[in-house]
Specification:
alpha+beta; 5 strands; 42% helix
Length: 152
């Protein structure tokens, strides 16, 4: 459930209520059948350990909201950040995946809710925009470019 915030289309949501994008264009042609499959892929291919370690040392930095499809709570942008939060806060998930938190599991207090911005466009359209801007990602600007395309 997404709670209202002061910015249009922004709110707070419990990260446990958000879902990974199982059809994320960054995963190539893979279509995942479970949240655990997405997590395994992100751990192996998206430097999630690095982000987990960063959050352990600096805490959660709310620098940008996760982009979420409003009707489904699917995260279109921010799956890596969601993966890191899940791994740091959900013991059952870590146990299922056999994931060991780096640095002996030390972490500052983490939020139960994160800032999200709802996407008013359909998932297919978002993926189309997402894939059309994927070359920008290598320069670290995909989120900015996607936000500009989505919100003008």
């Amino acid at each position: 459930m997404v709670k209202a915030a002061t910015e249009p289309n922004e709110g707070m949501a419990k990260h446990a209520s958000l879902h990974f994008d199982r059809n994320n264009p960054r995963s190539g042609d893979r279509i995942f059948t479970s949240e655990d499959e997405v997590l395994k892929f992100l751990i192996q291919n998206a430097d999630v350990d690095e982000l987990v370690t960063s959050i352990q040392s600096a805490g959660w930095v709310d620098f940008e909201p996760l982009i979420v499809q409003q009707k489904s709570n699917v995260v279109l942008e921010g799956n890596r950040r969601l993966a890191a939060l899940r791994l740091l806060t959900d013991t059952a998930t870590r146990n299922r995946l056999g994931y060991k938190i780096p640095n002996d599991g030390n972490a500052p207090k983490l939020p139960e809710e994160v800032r999200v911005r709802g996407s008013l466009i359909g998932a297919r359209r978002a993926r189309s925009l997402h894939s059309n801007t994927s070359t920008v990602h290598s320069n670290g600007m995909l989120s900015l470019k996607l936000s500009m395309l989505l919100y003008g």
